[in-house]
Amino acid sequence: MARHTFARTTLAALSAVTLLALGACSSEPPSSDGGDGAEGGGDELISVGFSQVGAESGWRSANTMSIKDALTEENGFELSFSDAQQKQENQISAIRNYIAQGVDVIAFSPVVETGWDAVLEEAKGAGIPVVLTDRAVETTVEDAYVSFIGSDFVEEGARSGEWAVEQYDGEGYKVVELQGTTGSAPAIDRQQGFADAIEGSDLEVIDSQTGDFTRDGGKKVMEGFLTAHDDIDLVFAHNDDMGLGAVEAIEAAGMTPGEDIKIITIDGVKDGMAALAEGKFNYIVECNPLLGPDLAEVIQKTVAGEDVEERIVTQDEAFDQEGAKEALPDRQY
Ligand code: AHR
């Protein structure tokens, strides 16, 4: 696998690493006050600007918690965190602020795949390394980021489709798809993976619309699907929250989710796993949101001038109803 080393050339960066190492030997927690260092010294912390997509789903809340738990002062970080409310322009302006502040590292989870070239070029020009978490970008900027940490979304869609074929091929199932945010990597990749996996079977996607990864969006789109089609057998939802919205719409229409209409989702957050254990969902492909520890390690290595993996793929499981009953009591998120 290709590796990246981000060469830190400034004296400030080198001294930050040295002080970080010294700080690790101290019993005092480091301070982030940027003051004179009398209580541990502000310089020893690695300053990180993180631009989060939003708070659209249970997955996102778990992901935010994981990042905040990993990038603490005790662990040697000074974190500036911003929530973009699912808007690319908010992310771009947050990243520009981090560049202006001169943080040591910028990390972000890009709401959509394209449109990042200018701001990535600006970060590169300022000599600030960028780490992507969760979602990928398409960019023409060379060496735009040092590492991308997250799941393989095509694989998640494919595993969903493969299970659907295994269970229902031969029954002429009509499928509706609740897509994630238009233009986002998980929406594009999960749709592709699922479509490829069901090709050659007699499952047919008869409608597909975005529910923007929210419970409310999933409910509204599902209500529209139920009005437009009276022959839906299976919902493929790009995340648990939209699947939970679909459950509400199906129940309101007098049907039983998981039986009259089967539901496959992606994520595996607690509410989704509970719905699966209760028989309202039929299958979940996990998307692990706990990216904080990997992000912390990548940032530390980058600042220290060490090699980091260009692509870190998170390992995901998959659950049927019995699997959910077993896993639910120990679920962390
Ligand atoms: O990018 C990951 C996706 O974003 C999750 O599957 C979804 O729940 C979230 O909103």
TrEMBL record:
PANTHER family: D-ALLOSE-BINDING PERIPLASMIC PROTEIN-RELATED, GALACTOFURANOSE-BINDING PROTEIN YTFQ. GO terms for cellular component: cell envelope. Residues 49-298 form the Periplasmic binding protein domain. This is Monosaccharide ABC transporter substrate-binding protein (CUT2 family). CDD domains: PBP1_galactofuranose_YtfQ-like (cd06309). It is found in: Cell envelope. The keyword Metal-binding does not apply. The keyword Signal applies. Belongs to the bacterial solute-binding protein 2 family. Pfam families: Peripla_BP_4. It comes from Myceligenerans xiligouense. Keywords: Signal.
